[in-house]
Amino acid sequence: MTRAFFNYAALSLIAVMHVSLSHTAMAQTAPLSKDTVNIEAVLLKALDDKDFDVREAAAGNARATQAVLLKALGDKDFDVREAAAGNVKATEDTLLKALDDKDFDVREAAAGNASATQAVLLKALDDKDFDVRKAAAGNASATQAAPSKVR
Fold this sequence. Notes:
The chain is an all-alpha fold.
């Protein structure tokens, strides 16, 4: 056998071992389903915290679900409700509910939310508070969604 054959065989063996070790390392570092964090359960628990800053952080979390956001909209502290209304994960129904809030800051956050739909923007443009109407008019979605009321 020639030296070239041995070099080729050695390189092939090294390549196979590298691939095998890479797959083994990936399998050992991949999260198992039983270890996966249920973010909704964590955030719902955080919404029960006595400190409003913790509840506000949960309401503003980028992975918040609608259940989390809806619960946050019922919080006694307007900062928590405002964080939920401003969360880009909020759906149209959640934002419409936020527009019914007694505090204009919460309604303003909903009107300025990047996820606001045409229905949300149109409702916000009818709000009694000019800050809410201004947020809807300044929302990047407003130019396409409600041009007749924005002008």
